[in-house]
Write a structure and sequence with these properties.
By secondary structure, this protein is of the alpha/beta class. The protein has 2 domains: 56 residues, Winged helix-like DNA-binding domain superfamily/Winged helix DNA-binding domain (Arc Repressor Mutant, subunit A); 202 residues, 3-Layer(aba) Sandwich (Rossmann fold). The chain is built from 10 helices and 16 strands. Helix 6 packs parallel to helix 7 and helix 8 packs parallel to helix 9. The two termini are 33 Å apart.
Length: 279
């Protein structure tokens, strides 16, 4: 079992029971006391758990998975501004992927107006939003898979479909982002599907409003550095901006206010322009 898989299993046990003992985990996972303690140190550093004498309890920063409808009402001005800016990166006639998420769902409405696109998505909501436009300008490939509470299609069927494809840009929604844990989701299967999407993309563009900063989901699917471009809103703290400017290829900050012009952006580029493809 890989360290990542082992740590995910530890988190499952902590969430199920509210706390675990090191001695119980050594028996459950068949590894040494030192291995378990190293795993607990890493999970604690990510804020996923809190170490206590002889074991661990759930950390305060681990977030649960809300349903899609619940998430649509959160940070709407910021998500709309982020989606509008992201749409400007898409060229007609290209192949793109949109992951599941309410910000990518907002982007789908813009995508519906861009001609001759091939759109790969593992989100029923994204596919429905494009289909509702009824303009016939896009080819939509829905991956199939098992549907999660956040309207994501995940699992072996989704992963196999994604790994047979290639796309120019991936627009990736995230549940949480953290300087130590990276990008995370509460759903283990969705994390694996996100990894598949990242592997097949020439450029990874993460869409994450400022409320996602400093929280941690159950499973990670990559460090902050996987983002060639990250688009967020101007409610992000200066400290968080500094961390992201160092970690990602390009940080784009858009005004979150509903009356702000969507064309106005503040951009910090640390490695050169990446809107076309990965280096």
């Amino acid at each position: 079992m890989l360290a990542r898989q082992r740590q995910a299993r530890i988190l499952e046990e902590v969430r199920r029971a509210g706390g675990v003992r090191v001695s119980e985990l050594t028996i459950l996972l068949g590894v040494s006391d030192m291995t378990i303690r190293r795993d607990l140190d890493q999970l604690s550093a990510a804020g996923a758990i809190q170490k206590v004498h002889g074991g661990a309890v759930l950390g305060s920063r681990v977030s649960e998975e809300p349903g899609f409808e619940a998430k649509t009402s959160l940070a709407q001005p910021a998500k709309q501004a982020i989606a509008a800016r992201a749409a400007r990166m898409i060229a007609p006639g290209t192949a793109i992927a949109l992951s599941a998420g309410t910000t990518t769902w907002a982007l789908a409405r813009h995508v519906a107006a861009i001609p001759a696109l091939t759109v790969v998505t593992n989100s029923t909501a994204v596919a429905d939003a494009i289909a509702a436009a009824e303009n016939g300008k896009q080819t939509v490939i829905l991956t199939g898979g098992v549907r999660t509470p956040s309207a994501a299609l995940v699992g072996p069927v989704a992963d196999a479909t994604i790994r047979s494809l290639h796309f120019d840009q991936l627009f990736l929604g995230v549940h949480a982002m953290d300087p130590v844990a990276g990008f995370t989701t509460p759903n283990l299967a969705e994390a694996e599907t996100n990894r598949s999407l990242i592997e097949r993309a020439q450029a990874v563009i993460v869409l994450a409003d400022s409320s996602k900063w400093g929280t941690v989901g159950l499973a990670d699917f990559g460090p902050l550095s996987i983002a060639d471009i990250l688009v967020t809103d101007d409610n992000l703290s200066e400290q968080a901006r500094a961390v992201l400017e160092e970690a990602v290829g390009e940080l784009i900050v858009v005004p979150a206010a509903t009356d702000s012009p969507t064309g106005t952006t503040e951009t910090t580029n640390t490695t050169g322009s990446t809107e076309g493809s990965r280096p």
